[in-house]
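Lecture notes, part 5. Sequence design as translation. It can be helpful to think of inverse folding as translation between two languages: the language of shapes and the language of residues. The source text, in structure tokens, appears below.
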């Protein structure tokens, strides 16, 4: 057995129980990691408090590298492993990440996690009303992480799975609204697209994605999503019409700004060209006069 400390992550100790195969894999953002795990208390009895093989779903857990709403320490542990490797990790209670769930949540049972989510949701809403969008986004993110941990233990398709999954959607939408306010438009595009992939009729996700597309000048995509909003909810047609008019006005304004910028650049180039030509003519005139003096 091999024992080591994970670099750049104090408070975590690793013991390799069975070596994996091949070289250390490369884990670019978006890589899906599939694994089974046990969580044990560091006491004399080695009390098991979580086991993916004994969970209701009995399926491996999955996380995506670099994604928001991730379990920070899990990503660190898993990306230190080879394919097929079996390892044991000790994590100090202080190990955690301010952008992830609360440090003590790893020992919370399902009921405790579910009770924590409404509180985080309300805290996020209160911060939004105060205009503290970055802090609110963190609260929504913490709640989503807790729910996804719970979701990983449920059987896909079961009533409990569906009920937990439904709680995630409004939290992600609230997070996306915060990102719109913070002008983090590509964050919005990523997470609304994930929602739409799972829920084809999520009107709010289409609307927020349309706003993000419009903000980054993706005209075709913005129009497509705005029209989908009106298609899914006819009562929102006036709002969509207003948004499309606003987008058209912004595009027109952008067109004239770019055109003016182009003509200004062209005019500047012409001025510089004339100046160079005049300097060249002056230089040639000077050479001719110097030549005439030499003949005399």
């Amino acid at each position: 057995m091999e024992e080591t400390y994970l670099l750049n992550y104090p408070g975590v100790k690793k013991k390799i129980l069975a070596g994996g195969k091949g070289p250390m894999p490369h884990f670019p953002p978006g890589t899906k990691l599939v694994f089974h795990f046990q969580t044990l208390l560091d006491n004399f009895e080695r009390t098991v408090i979580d086991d993916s093989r004994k969970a209701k779903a009995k399926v491996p857990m999955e996380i995506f590298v670099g994604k928001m709403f991730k379990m920070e320490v899990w990503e660190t542990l898993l990306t230190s492993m080879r394919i097929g490797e079996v390892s044991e990790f000790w994590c100090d209670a202080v190990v955690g990440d301010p952008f992830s769930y609360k440090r003590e949540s790893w020992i919370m049972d399902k009921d405790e996690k579910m009770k924590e989510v409404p509180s985080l949701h309300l805290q996020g809403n209160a911060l939004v009303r105060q205009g503290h969008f970055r802090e609110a986004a963190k609260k929504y993110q913490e709640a989503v992480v807790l729910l996804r941990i719970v979701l990983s233990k449920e059987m896909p398709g079961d009533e409990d799975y569906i009920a937990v999954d439904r709680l995630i959607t409004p939290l992600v939408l609230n997070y996306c609204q915060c990102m719109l306010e913070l002008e983090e438009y590509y964050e919005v595009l990523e997470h609304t697209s994930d929602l739409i992939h799972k829920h084809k009729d999520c009107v709010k996700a289409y609307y927020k994605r349309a706003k993000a597309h419009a903000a980054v000048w993706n005209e075709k995509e913005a129009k497509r999503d705005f029209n989908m909003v009106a298609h899914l909810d006819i009562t929102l047609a006036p709002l969509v019409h207003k948004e499309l008019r606003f987008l058209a006005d912004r595009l027109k304004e952008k067109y004239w700004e770019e055109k003016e910028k182009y003509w200004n650049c062209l005019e500047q180039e012409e001025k510089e060209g004339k100046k160079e030509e005049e300097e060249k003519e002056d230089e040639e005139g000077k050479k001719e006069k110097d030549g005439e003096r030499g003949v005399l």
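The translated text above is only one of many valid answers, since several sequences can fold into similar shapes. The helical segments are 72-78, 110-129, 133-152, 159-181, 185-198, 203-215, 219-232, 237-295.
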